[in-house]
Amino acid sequence: MSDSFPWCLVSDLDDTLTGDEEALAELLEYASQGEIFRLVLNSSRPRMSVEKTLAGFPGSYFPRDLVTGMGTEVMVEGEPVQEWEERFSGWQRGVVDEIVEELGGIPHAQEFQTAYKASFMVEGKGRREKVRKAIARCGQPSQIVISGHHDVDILPAEAGKGQAILFVADLLGMDVARQVLVAGDSANDLAMFEISSRGIVVGNARAELREAVKSETAYQASGRHASGVIEGLRHWGVIPRGEVLGEEVCDSFE
Question: Shortest CA distance to 105 belongs to which of 78, 84, 126, 81?
Answer without folding.
Answer: 126
